[in-house]
Amino acid sequence: MHSDGLGHPALVASLQGLIARDQLKSGVLIFPREKGGFLAGSVYRRIWAKAREAVLPEHEYNSPVGKQVYDLRHTCLTTWLNNGIPPAQVADWGGNSVPVLLSTYARCVTGQIAELQQRIEGPQALPGSRLPSSVGPARAAVSSSRDARAR
Fold first, then answer.
1. Does the predicted model carry a pTM greater than 0.70?
2. 3-state SS of the chain: helix, strand, coil percent to 5?
């Protein structure tokens, strides 16, 4: 769970189900060793490698993508940023400060230039100017109504 009490809804529900089913109390490990205590890192790595091999095509399994469990954290934070979640929220959910988040992940944000340009160009279109075809219908309609009023 995050500091604001929110988390990935499906994951939170799944973990809460495990906690309720096993009647776990605060401080009890969800995935302990057989005799109690924390699982060794080697156990996580071995299980992770088997899971990757079971679900990934061979070329992806042999690639560095998701090679370590920790890579999932990077993938998650990058996905949130690429989907337009504000950096302050991503930092909070990821347990980072905004400066650390941006210094690490800003270069990973991709695929937003066209949408950002539309956001800028649409409201700032000059009367009588034609917007690039990349501007969506909603933005073009707003621009067209401005053009009509300007005439």
1. no
2. 55, 0, 45
